[in-house]
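Q&A FORM
Asked by: J.P.
Topic: structure of N5-carboxyaminoimidazole ribonucleotide mutase

PROVIDED:
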Amino acid sequence: MPKAAVIMGSSSDMEIMKSAADVLTNMGIDHKVFVMSAHRQPEKVHAFCTAARAEGYEVIIAGAGAAAHLPGVIASWTTLPVIGVPIPSSSLNGVDSLYAIVQMPAGVPVATMAIGSAGAKNAAYFAAQMLGLKYPEIASAYEHFRAGLKSG
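REPLIED BY: S.T.
REPLY: Here is the structure written out as tokens.
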């Protein structure tokens, strides 16, 4: 069963969000990647979110650009942890996405990462940290990764 979902609003976001999927793979975290738009496919987003826990998901990474509503919409439909990744897809280079994702109302949080590929990677590492609280093999994989950072 997948533990993590990587969701993006458009297939054009795959270039950035592939970084998250690659990290999850390297950490040994079962995951699935989806493209669904909060604006163009709201029913699909709703159906996924309301079934996600029952389907075995434990964390959702959501990338979005421009208006960047996807992470917030997902967080409104599930109580699973949602990690938002701002995609630099507009003339504002992702700053608009960052503001849209980070400014969630109290009680409906979205953990928000940096803009772009570094943010997508950190979203997956953060997911590994959270999942590592429950799964020792994921904790070990993340600890091994961090130890490797020290040796350059």
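FOLLOW-UP: The longest helix spans residues 117-132.
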